Amino acid sequence: MRAPEPQRQGAWACEKSAGRVRPEPPDGVRNEFQRDRDRIIHAKAFRRLMHKTQVFISPDGDHFRTRLTHTLEMMQISRTIARALDLNEDLAEAIALGHDLGHTPFGHTGEEALSHALVAYGRTFRHNEHSLRVVDHLEKEGEGLNLTLEVRDGILNHTGKGYPSTREGEIVRVADRIAYVNHDVDDALRAGIISRNDLPNGPVSVLGEKMSVRIDTLVRDMISNSKEKGEISLSGTVYEALMQLRAWLFHHVYLVAGSREKEKAAGVVVALFEHYLEHPEERARSDPDPLLETVDFVAGMTDRYALATYRRLFLPRGDEFS
Question: Taking a C-beta distance cutoff of 8 angstroms, is the pair 28, 158 a contact?
Fold first, then answer.
């Protein structure tokens, strides 16, 4: 599932959209990318992000990131970089706001569980591909949001093997990593999983000890290096430091944080998938393909809705045993 690839507008900024799958008359007030931004913000899938996991499943504190706060923080980084490079801020903003709309409940744990469940059917699940499906087919009761080709391309290619066709999409792809690496470190510190003394010396010596300093270092480096090279990129030293910190996170946070809870969450996603595949009358209608329809239904759930549904379907009610 791929979006049509837009042509890069000029040598640097994407100043004008190549259009939409279904042509629409001009708005008269907003440009095309502002219209896309507004459609995404008002989408049901966008509102559900507030109840979807970023890293920590059902955290006790009020200040841990959700998929929505990650999206907003990453959007801010993308706009800052786009403005400094004289690129299209509105396009960068729209891509950033829509990039994670296809995430499952329980973050990457849910994504991996759903993808694993689909292996038996010869399919896989990737949240970037499903994000495109959300904006193309699932929103507005199956009508879709009819976004511009550039925004659709950026959403699909913000991660994975594909690569964005606009500079603004390239910014979002890097800004996503800048945001989640630093914010996930911050959340891990808040959760007490790691301490500041645990952070690896190499990356910290390059990027900085505090989250705000690290983000500032990365953003400024990306701006200066992109201007110098004429392409969207970090300098070699700073990019290597970011990737080292990311690798350290995988081993010391992602693979250990709440491992038992992640195992439970994965079990919830698989159980719901199997149940709704066997009971098509209980799921929402979205596609003639029963497998794809089941994926749509389960992937669209928030953490709390998935847990409540699991309890209703698989756990005994207290009053039945009173």
Answer: no
